[in-house]
Amino acid sequence: MAALMNENAIAGKPARVRLAGSDLLGVAIVIAAAIAGYFLFPNNLALLTRIISIALLVLSLDLVTGYCGVATLGHAALYGAGAYAAGMAAVHFGITDPLAMMAVGILAGTAAGLLSGVIVLRAHGLPQLVLSIAIVHLFHEAANKASSWTGGSDGLASIAPDPLLGLFEFDLWSRTAYVFGVVLLLVVLIVLRLVVRSPFGMLCRGIKEDPIRIRAMGASVHGTIMRMYAISGAVAGVGGALNAISTQVVGLDSLSFTLSAEALVMLVLGGTGSLYGALIGTVSFLWFEDIVSAANPFHWLTIVGALLILVVLFAPRGLYGTASAFLERRQEARR
Amino acid sequence: MQTVLSIAVDALAYGMVLFVISIGLSVTMGLMRVVNLAHGAFAMIGGYIASYAARDLGVGYGVAVLIAVFGTILIAIPIERLLYRRIYGAPELTQVLMTIGITFCIIGIANFVFGPTLKTIPLPPELQGSINLGFRAVATHRLFAILCGLVVAGALWYLIEKTAFGVKLRASVDNAAMAAALGVRTQIVYAVSFAIAIGLAAFGGVVGAELLPVEPYYALRYMVTFLVVVSIGGAGSIPGALLACLLLGGIDTTGRYLMPEFGEFFFYLAVIAIVCVFPRGLAGRAK
Any transmembrane segments, and where (chain B) (predicted)? Predict the structure, then answer.
């Protein structure tokens, strides 16, 4: 935390102006990439929408793992809760307005986040990991068992969302879904930017560095992480609901251990503890997966494994962390 | 009554196989503090080697087991030297990622070399068929698995409690720096216990092949089960791991017999309940 403040103080311009500038730049880059994606890959918008949906899950995982230091292998539980809640609202309760489905997804994600926060924070280290894995398996088995509600292993199909705002139909080429996803991602990104810069966000980073010291300062470690878990659940819920709305089907794979592990891999590939790292990790991972797994799914697994080992050994801060450290060093050298 | 006995025998056999495989994980985790998610992958390698030796080379079951155990240790040595060495003492997240990476690689390579099909390890005639215990007939192989578990538990207890190596091992688990200062060569203790752990994993993979079938996704499918055993038993504790295996084997088998449609729901519910009540494991010590 102290290092961050020093860094801002050393820079010549007032810290606030510089931060706002870099934020605008980040948002502009995301918008530019989204527009480029729309025009470069008009036939692949479904894949791009899926990338946005998973990116929201990875962002949500980053809040807990990257900012609070809680290692979890069960984050898909939050994502799946959002997806299933939005889907069930549409199929069983006739709530087919996309924005209302989104709200249901956010609520369910937050509830799942609070629940898994309560359980996961009971332990530390290995037992904590095991608890997080047990949660995602529990959700998975529950969704599988309650097949009259969730469709079981066949998946929850025939979700038919209304046109967005009553104007834009969800078309076969996922144009509407893609634009909807990009807008959601931008809103979430801006909100999270404010959250992680706030005193609350700084407190979370402090907890990651040294929880005992934070407790000695008089702050509640448990309460702070629980609040972050709720925010994280809401973000994962947005991702899940977006997936339900855009693909119009929810499968058990959205509650799987594999998805949780893959989300963690994407986060680490991009770099923990930074929002852009989460985005870059998701995009590069899923893009790569789409190319390689079309050739051979088992080679894909070998490559992911090798990639993970290489990242851990040679770029522990991920793509974004390594690149930004490199740029910083170059700036230092120029001065 | 018949059902209860069937469940008891199956649960005992399953628990013992779990014990043989995961006790190595428990020891290395207690000793080196490495969250080794790739442990199941080594059990899988053992199963593949035994299957290859018994079916394609045509050697006997006993020889196949020996080849599997030593072959797996040989494969594990370079991996330990090159990869594990670098994550001792690293944060958990790093260890989790590295070992998941190793698991993924081993799954991909196993599938490339042996294909995606299920591999069987042919049993010798003595272990086929069943034995009549008076009240009912029990598959000989199940009894063999239970026996192996008991022998491994006994041998490990003797090794750790009664030998000079065991004293050094316990000293290193309690306080590695102090043990090193007193002249224990902790590097050798680490290397030997890692080899024993891998060897036991391979042994368990072969003996348990009838219960946990060998196929490429073995490493991923049972990874969670082995981790659960260790975290419930408490890292580094043999009685804890034994108790955890019997308990979890019992819960899982009972669930499968009585409520198969619920899958592993009750298993994971029990795991959450136990870890919440005993965050350091059943036999874990406060730090």
Answer: 6-27, 34-54, 60-84, 96-118, 138-160, 188-212, 224-250, 262-282
